[in-house]
Amino acid sequence: MGSLRDAFDGVVVASDQLKPVDAALVEAGRKIADQIDSVDGLEGEPVTKALYLMPHLVNILKEMLATPAARKAAGLDVKESTGGKLANLRSIEGGRRAHTS
Questions:
Q1: 57 within 8 A of 26, measured Cβ to Cβ
Q2: Of 7, 16, 70, 92, which cross-links 62 as Cys (Cβ 3.0–4.6 Å)?
Q3: Does residue 40 share a domain with residue 87?
Q4: DSSP assigned state of 20
Q5: What is the pTM of this model?
């Protein structure tokens, strides 16, 4: 399994929402991911402390619109929230019927 930092960096590369002004947000996410990754192989208190960082990383991902709920709330990923291609086709067909009646 890959590191959390690698996964975070993958999100940054894949995102079409980030702008240069978001650099500090991205760097904060990287630092948090690095801290969480640093406890790999450790036990006890260091692991517990690192896990307390996870909600902060999730909040950064939300700010980056990198969670399904954040994209839905922002009106992105419409096909996910409306049922996909089949629902879209049905709504188009329903619209045609309404205009011909």
A1: no
A2: 70
A3: no
A4: G
A5: 0.70
Number of domains in the chain: 2
Closest CA to 36 of 11, 15, 8: 8
Expressed as residue numbers, the domain containing 84 is 77-101
At 44-74, the pLDDT tens digits run: 888 898 889 999 999 999 999 999 999 999 9
d(CA 41, CA 39): 6
Q: How far is 44 from 51, CA to CA, in rounded Å?
A: 11
Task: Find out whether 64 and 29 touch, Cβ atoms under 8 Å.
Answer: yes
Distances (CA, A) of 49 to 29, 32, 92: 16, 11, 51
Looking at the fold, whether 54 and 94 belong to one and the same domain comes out as no
Closest CA to 29 of 49, 47, 55, 48: 55
